[in-house]
């Protein structure tokens, strides 16, 4: 025999199945992880329902306010888009269709556009440029995320 050790046929190294079994958590730990995972999912579902109810209530209050005022302006329309996008984001969480990262970006774009509309006359011109630049960066990031998810 040389300085290297040789392996006999009876001393086989463990295969992938044996290594995986050795690394698997004990049954009690797996049950605990599954219980914790179910708990977190239940809390997530409950909070999504709460957010949905709150969003629908806010949209209802806004519709009532617009009706009582007797006029609709651009800020009101953008606010309704914000509510619609929040509901869309919740739908993505429930259905699993679409990228969950895109809707928060759309919400941010709409919120910035609404801010520009509401404060446009009173804002310093450089702030409008900064917010428009933020909208552009968010739009570019959404395009990148959409293209990356298709690949």
Question: How many discrete domains?
Answer: 1
Main sheet attributes: strand count, strand direction, barrel closure: none
| Intertermini distance | 53 Å
The global form is extended
- The string of secondary-structure elements, in order, is HHHHH
- What integer value in Å does the Rg equal? 27 Å
* Average pLDDT for all residues: 81
Strand percent estimate: under 5%
Helices, by number, come to 5
Label the structural class: mainly alpha
- The residue fraction in helices comes out at over 70%
Layout of secondary structure:
Elements: H1 16-23, H2 27-69, H3 74-95, H4 102-119, H5 125-150
Produce a short descriptive summary.
With 151 residues, the protein is an all-alpha fold. The chain is 77% helix and 0% strand.
Structure overview:
There is one protein chain. With 151 residues, the protein is mainly α. The chain has one domain (28-150). It is 77% helix and 0% strand. It is extended.
Question: Which short descriptors sum up this protein?
Answer:
151 residues; 5 helices
